[in-house]
């Protein structure tokens, strides 16, 4: 009897062990992953005796086995996201030896994977198309890494995918057509540089529960196709550049619980007859350009329904005016952000044929010659101008220069130029507004510091991100003279320059006729410098040859514009050429004279 009992206990323990014993090949793959990730703390206890299928689960590590194969792999490291890494003194990405292509070649050998989560591990490089070899994948989470470039179009091959999370990376460009992901329930692409077109999610994706596209650069209208997402519970489109009217159907989606569309450029009057879903608990459409009255279901009575509504910094008339812009502010801003009309050609740009590629190569040869001729022309013109001499001691513009001609009666043309560039009108700020934008110059908002002063990141009341340069004046200057010079600076608006959006002059308390500090509000150009893209192997592949030629032409056009206005002697270096979200070149360093010292307007210190 005891013998049978012993045999029964032996079989009881043997069966689950053998059914979950990992095949040796997949054990070797896990050790390879450990080496690729440079042995992060969460994996440091692995050794040849480790039984992976029986490791205790934790928030940082989950390995699930079924039928001798790994079906779930979750690894959460301690590396910071790209945005957080700006404040870190230690490198957060994996070393230069890391190859994301080789890494995913190994990972995709785990053919039974249903859930793959690789979070905060310092992965860098472009996401390879081969990741779609994981045909059984249901959850893909690669959050808080340094993934570059575009999302591969092969992502739509995940026919079983229910959750796609690629948040807080360095992804850019357009999102591929995701209509093929029929059973997708969660999509989180927040914290990247994706855009400008709103992703195509299909009109019949009734399974989507959570959609988060916040903190990107989407610049389009919210598509009407979202009204068919009957299971959508959480929608976050905040901190983009969305334009057009606020769709009324969002509030009445049957399952919707939370909506955040704050810090966009939505305009027009809110629909009067809006019905809200009984499930709706949170709404935030602050910092837009909305006008009119709040619908009844979003008004003061909404609090009785346990519904939180945040609507500050619009131009609404039915709420406290202390937290709203004047009506004229939204009207002017709405004109400036009006989206360009769509053309039929945009639908054909996705198909690039061989003839176009060959024509592009031939065009590049022609462009190289044109750029060389243009640079020769500019240099020749500068030499001629220097021979003639600019004899203006107080500013680098002559009275008969092109920009100075617009000083009298040129305000309308200047405003139109601002609108065409998508820039707000030039604004003279108060010290209180500067303190509000930078949170009283909080050290956490300090971007850089140099001999000329400090550079802070700030947020204006309309939600736009700017850079605020603080210049401590060593020489005595009259505030009136400074105002005149800043007025001339305000005319420097060009597609290939980092423009000045406004300024603030602060005087000494005991000498109100003497200026002590000048705050200069600059555009925030999001994609870093040209030097970063050419020297950093993680960004180099983003710049294809056509883009490089476009950048070269942009620099030449920016220099020509400055020289035409008499602004010469500029320090044009790779680090002083910035790239915006469309990889357009923007010159960030140009000389503006303040008597008797020279002030150089630099995007970075």
Q: How are the secondary structure elements laid out?
A:
Blueprint: H1 2-19, H2 24-36, E1 61-66, E2 69-76, H3 82-85, H4 100-107, E3 115-119, E4 124-126, E5 139-141, E6 146-149, E7 163-165, E8 170-173, E9 186-188, E10 193-194, E11 210-212, E12 234-236, E13 258-260, E14 267-269, E15 282-284, E16 289-292, E17 308-310, E18 315-316, H5 327-336, H6 354-388, H7 411-420, E19 427-428, H8 431-437, E20 446-450, E21 453-459, E22 465-477, H9 479-489, E23 500-507, E24 515-523, H10 530-535, H11 537-540, H12 545-564, E25 577-579, E26 585-587, E27 589-594, E28 597-602
Pfam family, one: PK_Tyr_Ser-Thr
Domain Protein kinase: 441-605
Signal peptide: 1-20
Q: What tags apply to this protein structure?
A:
605 residues, alpha/beta, Leucine-rich repeat, LRR (right-handed beta-alpha superhelix), Phosphorylase Kinase, domain 1, 11-stranded mixed β-sheet, 6-stranded mixed β-sheet, 12 helices, 24% helix, globular, disordered C terminus, transmembrane, protein kinase activity
CATH level 1 class label of one domain:
Alpha Beta
Work out the helicity level: 10-25%
Quote the average pLDDT: 78
CATH homologous superfamily of one domain, by name? Answer: Phosphorylase Kinase, domain 1
Task: List the quaternary state of the chains.
Answer: single chain
Molecular shape: globular
Strand order of the largest sheet: 1-2-3-5-7-9-11-12-13-15-17
**Beta strand count:** 28
Uncertain segments of ≥5 residues (pLDDT<50)?
4-19, 340-358, 385-420, 595-605
Question: What is the number of helices?
Answer: 12
Just name the CATH architecture of one domain: 2-Layer Sandwich
Major sheet:
11 strands, mixed
CATH topology of one domain: Phosphorylase Kinase, domain 1
Radius of gyration: 29 Å
Distance between the termini: 85 Å
Q: What percentage of amino acids are in beta strands?
A: 15-25%
Structural class: alpha/beta
